[in-house]
Amino acid sequence: MLERGLLSRMFSGRVVIACVGNQWRGDDGLGPFVGSLVRSSERVRVVDCGETPENYLGVIARMKPEKVVVIDAASFGGRPGETRTVARQEIAGGGPSTHTARLTLFTDYVEAQTGAETFFIAVQPESLEFGEGLRPSVEAAARELAAMINDVIKDLDRLSAGERGSVPS
Question: Rounded to an integer, what distance in angstroms lies between the CA atom of residue 104 and that of residue 97?
Answer without folding.
Answer: 10
